[in-house]
Amino acid sequence: VTDSEIIRLYFERSERAIEETDRAYGKYCRYISFEILRNKEDSEEIVNDTYLKTWDAIPPQNPPILKSFLGKIVRGLAINRLEYNNAQKRGGGQIDAVLDELYDCLPSYDENNDDGEHIREVINSFLRSLPDEKRRIFIRRYWYLSPIAEIAESFSISEGKVKMILMRARKELKKTLEKEEVYL
Amino acid sequence: MKSRDILDAVGEIDQDLIEDAAPDLNRAKKKSKRPVLFRSIAAAACFVLIICGALAARPLFDRVNEPVVNEESEMAEGSEVVTDSEDAAKATEEERNDIDTSDRYSPIESAGEMDTCGEMQTEYCEPYLQLVDGLEGFDGYSLTYIPCSEDRVGEKIAEININYKWSDAPDDIIVCNADVFNVIGRDGSISLCYRYTEANGLYDSENYYYMNVNQASFERLSELFNVTGIDENASFSETVNYSKKSQYSYCDRFAISEELSREIISALKSCDGEVDNETTYGELLTLFDERVTFKISQSDYSVYMEVTNNGYVYCTVFGSRVFYIGHDAAQKIIDLVLSGEPVGYEWNEEYSEWYTICEEDEIRENPPATFSDMMALREMDAGFSLNPYVTYLASKIKLAPPYFILADSLLENIEDIFRSIDGRMLSPNEDVGPAYECVKFKISREGREPLEFHVFSAGYISFGGFDYMVGTDVVEKIISIVVLEGEPADGYVWNKSEERWQIVSSDESETYGCGVGYDTYDYEEDTAPYETETAIESVIETWEYETETAIFEYTE
After folding, report:
1. Min CA distance, A61 vs chain B (Å)?
2. pTM of the model
């Protein structure tokens, strides 16, 4: 079943849409969820919430890439769930490590928060300027929150190199954010 | 503000980017077997890879020096040999296909191609190529390379074309053919005796160069190359005297694991590089913004390499030459090296540099007493800049560099360094970046005027009215010899609190010290350039460069 057919099912309000979504992208959603939460039950719950949110969102939305659309939802829900969990007890998953790493990228603090659209454009532009491998590694780490070891294995490079690439990318991102006067 | 905001901002990136970087979940499970398989083939591939390491430079090399044998016959020989090494390479290839690294270079793309001789002949190739690579270590010569093949055993090792420029010669370039004989010492040293006659018939001479190979290579070479005689007297110490180039001691930079070194060698192998005869080492140093230096060690040879992200490789195994391999390939190698662990260094996040674990303060408290100690300290050096200790030494004297009086033995040391450098004259007004004068000294020969040398941190030396780019490593070495073992000229005392040499009399504070029988001179006035021709003659006479060791290419 193609993406457009699944989306058509959503538009027709057919419950088969959820089944087909799960068949096509369930594994993908569970991967993202689990990388963040490191808890099978929570991950499963988040995936179900994702389908519910998707059901509510389509229509009116008509995502061009269903996979990424689902990924964004599951990622956001999982991070929120993690924050909730962490409020009870710290630890677990990649989120703490990732947040620590991203601290490097923070430009000087400014009271004037920038608008989200501009930030998104700057980051998109930054990512598109990166070489393919570097960009994929960056996104794997900071979008998918994949562990370093797993990224290294996926790209057949050492963990040291992954860390090096990420470190350089973060520095470049910081420069870009400062240059574009993006203050978070 | 919070990292979480960045995380959220990254979360909003375009969907196509997310899709592009999505993990391949179906393949993730399969990959867990990869290390095991790698280990299983590692032993089988190891032997071939060591050989391949020695062969790594050959494609680059071959483009410059056309093989004597035709390629067809060479390929035919290679294709006949089906070996375990090929099986191993095939297994590696299959494994690589399995993990799909199509957008990366292939680490060991074609082991068969690298090992043109096949397993049957690798035992011949290894020492042979060491020999050939060693021959490349002499500046000013290009070697006509003869690929290894079984039916060539017993032939002459190589033919050498001697290319050099000599200002007095009627033609700038004189190309001579020379026969090569080989004499192998019992300790494994090989002397290459070649006899050459200049094209104009003016000069006929024999010259000897030595290099060292290990005992195993020595024995095999004895069988392979129709040894014409045993040089009973050729000892390792003699070879050092004769061939400073091959003994040139570079510091260990990164300790590269065997696996990593294989990757780097393979990365080099996969580069479509060529010798860049235009770019000198000095220029190389001014053109990059990222550089790694490292040494790859295999069982019986090691290669010093310096890779800059502007696409150049400076490499000793190819004869201290500069290769251009392109930006991408250079960056790959840099990334590979940086993924390794340096010895004695730690990564400084703030400055994105490796810093020595041995702090300068420690060095100040326990300074190396001798040059050997100094070099031992340098063994730890993984630096991307001047050796910290030399920088420290230089800082002691940079305000008023005194002249140093050098013992004869030191003069020889420095002369040997000068002879082995692959330098070039700087063109007038050439910008070499910021530099300060680290040290100055005079070298005098009996009955001749002393020649002054001014050494600058940017890697060049000024003497006789010329600026000569030699590279920071050579400068470091000269500084360390002069400062550590030389005595400053009369009139200087060591200022302990300021840690620098200081002129005794405050009345002389406006002038720099003098030594070796020179009167005090005004530094400002002395900056006027010398008459060019006079200076050239002076340099030639003073250094007594022989034609075969001349490294300067003078241009009008």
Report:
1. 14
2. 0.31
